[in-house]
Amino acid sequence: MMEIGVALGGGGSRGMAHLGVLKYLEDEGISIGAMAGTSIGGLVGAVYLSGFSLDEMVEQFASIEQDKLYGQLKSDEPSLLGLAGGTKVLSNFLGDLTFQDLKIPFAVTAVDI
After folding, report:
1. Which of 10, 26, 49, 58 would disulfide-bridge 102, Cβ 3.0–4.6 Å?
2. Cα–Cα distance measured from residue 17 to residue 111, given in angstroms and rounded to the nearest whole number
3. Can you list the positions of beta strands (E) in 1-113?
4. What CA–CA distance (Å, rounded) separates 50 from 104?
5. Is residue 46 within 8 Å of residue 29, measured between CB atoms?
6. CA-wise closest residue to 105 among 56, 9, 47, 32
7. What is the pTM of this model?
8. 3-state secondary structure of 100
9. What digits encode the pLDDT tens for the residues 78-104?
10. pLDDT digits (tens, 9 = 90+) for 10-39
11. C-alpha distances in angstroms, 6 versus 3, 52, 108?
């Protein structure tokens, strides 16, 4: 069985295309030995590696109201788009999981400008 590393990029709602790529890899029997992601790619990767099936992910992501992802909490630092809703969604998916709980190495990149 072939094993590869996968990098998932950003791009907001276009990041859902990552699900199709992951499905293709699964269908072809290609194993993922390491993964990295940025922005939506980080979210998709974290949820996938936490054990959700692709079918579950499609169902869950489709039910998310995009306009509810953005907003700021009173405790947030100033920003262009707050991610209070996105944080809640991610918390609902992952609970208390940490990087150490994942089955393969995973890295997430972020920028704080």
Report:
1. 49
2. 22
3. 3-8, 31-38, 106-109
4. 10
5. no
6. 32
7. 0.82
8. helix
9. 776 676 777 777 888 899 999 999 989
10. 887 778 899 999 999 999 999 999 999 998
11. 10, 17, 12
